[in-house]
From TrEMBL, chains A, B:
Pfam (any one): HTH_24
UniProt record, GO biological process: regulation of DNA-templated transcription; response to amino acid
Lineage of origin: Bacteria, Pseudomonadati, Pseudomonadota, Alphaproteobacteria, Hyphomicrobiales
Protein name according to UniProt: Lrp/AsnC family transcriptional regulator, leucine-responsive regulatory protein
Keyword set, alphabetical order: DNA-binding, Transcription, Transcription regulation
Amino acid sequence: MIKRLRYENGDLDAVDLRILRMLVDDARASVAEIARSVGMSAPSVSERIRRLQEGGIIEGYTIRINPAAFGLPLAAWLRIRPVPGQLGTVSEILRDIPEIATCDRVTGEDCFIARVHVGSVPDLERVIDRIIPYAMTNTSIIQSSPVTERLPMPAGAND
Amino acid sequence: MIKRLRYENGDLDAVDLRILRMLVDDARASVAEIARSVGMSAPSVSERIRRLQEGGIIEGYTIRINPAAFGLPLAAWLRIRPVPGQLGTVSEILRDIPEIATCDRVTGEDCFIARVHVGSVPDLERVIDRIIPYAMTNTSIIQSSPVTERLPMPAGAND
DNA sequence: CATGAAAACAGGTCTTA
DNA sequence: TAAGACCTGTTTTCATG
C-alpha cells in the first residue's frame, strides 16, 4: 500500500517531492532548470512552488552556514536538565547564549537538547558554566554527520 | 576585548554579519534590499556575498521545510548506542531510514544522535524497530523549539 | 510571447598601505 | 604609487502575466 502525503490543499505527488528535493539541495535553482528536470513548463512549476509555500510546506528560504569556516570549528550537542523550579530560567538563558544554533524542548529525562558551535574547548566550558547553576548538563562533541540535513520522508511514500 | 571572526581571506566585519543574518532569515532577499539595509551599493554587497561563498562560510542555499504540513507532525530525537561490532551496520541503517532528517556521530555514551519526523507513534515504533536489533535507543519527543535554527555567534563577537 | 524587475558586468573614483 | 573597496550606469537574464 502506497502512503499518500497530504496537506490542506490536497495530495502531494511525485513531482512536488522532486521539486522539494531540488529546492532543499539548491534553493537558487531557477524555475526553468527545475522545470526541465521534472519535464514540465516553467509556469506549472512556478504555480506548484507557490502552492507549497501557501500550504506552509515551504516555510522559507535560508542559507547553509559552515560554522567552522568562520572560526567556530567545535560543535556539540548539550542535553540539559534543569533543577526543579528553574525550567523557565534555563529556557531564557539558552535563548541568550549566542553560541546555541538550535534548541528543542523534549520529553524524557532531559528537558532541552541544544546544538552549540564554539571556537575551542575553553569556549565550550564558558557556555556550560552559564547553564550549570540552574541545570545538569551532558555534552557530546560532534565528530561527523552520517546524515546531513535532508527532506524527511515516510517509508514507502509515493515518490 | 572584542573577538574577531576570522576566515582564510581575512576578517569578517559587522556588515558581513548583517548580510549573513539577513540571508539566514530570508535567502531570497534581493541584493538591492540587503544593500539598502546595510547602507551600501548593490554591487558591493554582491561582492561580499561572493567572498562569503568562496570562503566556504556560505555553503549553499536551501529551504526551510515544515514536516508537519505534509503529514509528519511527530518529531523526535533518537540517541543510538550500537552493540559492540555493529557501528558500521547501524550507520548504514540510519542513512537508509527516510524518516531521519539529520544524524550526527558524537562522543560519549551514545554514538549517534538523529532527528526523525513521522506521522504517528506507530510509525515511530517502526523506525525504532529497524534500529533495535543492532543498538540501544533512547527516544525524546520534541515538544517545542525555544531556539529555531539561527546563526551561531561567539560571545562578544564584533557585531 | 512580452514586459518588468533584478542581478551580473564594466568602467571610474577614492582611500590607504 | 599600487591595491582594494565601493559607486554609477549599462546590459542581460529571469520570472511572471
